[in-house]
UniProtKB/TrEMBL annotation:
Pfam families in alphabetical order: GyrI-like
Superkingdom of the source species: Bacteria
Family matches, as Gene3D superfamilies: Regulatory factor, effector binding domain
Name of this chain's protein: GyrI-like domain-containing protein
Residue stretches making up the AraC effector-binding domain: 1-150
InterPro entries attached to this UniProt entry: AraC_E-bd, GyrI-like, Reg_factor_effector_dom_sf, SmbC-like
Length: 150
């Protein structure tokens, strides 16, 4: 079941990995969270994001890019040789809550675009799909997939 949410533009700190999607993305997320915790940036209201930048059906596995991101206040400085700063455009998103397991995410992704079409929601290809992880939801073994829609 989708909800529709207006997500504001926000600043991020991120690590980018190029290669096949999978287990290495989780290890990258742990690296970013360790950096964020060591710098006092990870708290109960933090949002960590995963962004698959390429469609693995159209991009060779070795060329797929995955960004692991932490939403930051605008005035936060990012000082680390591998962690970069950026911005994510805001706008309307269809948000799907799913189990935070490999199976739960795979199932959610498998029916995602058909589910959007059934609700007459059109994906905005100019903005990335976000996997959003927030501590309160993770405590319930849940996460969200936020699809930008027109």
């Amino acid at each position: 079941m989708f909800t529709v949410e207006e997500i504001p533009e926000f600043r991020i700190a991120f690590l980018r990995r190029t290669g096949p999607y999978g287990e290495a993305n989780g290890m990258q997320m742990e690296r970013l969270k360790s950096w964020a915790a060591a710098n006092g940036l990870l708290g109960p209201d933090s949002a960590v994001l995963g962004i698959a930048r390429d469609d693995p059906a159209r991009t060779p596995p070795g060329d797929c890019r995955y960004d692991t991101c932490l939403v930051l206040p605008d005035d936060t400085e990012v000082r680390h040789p591998e962690v970069r700063a950026g911005r994510i455009a805001g706008g309307r998103h269809a948000v799907l809550t799913t189990a935070h397991t490999a199976e739960g995410l795979a199932h959610a992704w498998a029916g995602l675009f058909d589910g959007l079409a059934a609700r007459s929601l059109t994906v905005d290809p100019a903005r990335p799909v976000l996997e959003r992880y927030r501590p309160a939801m993770l405590a319930q073994h849940l996460c969200e997939i936020c699809v930008p829609v027109l």
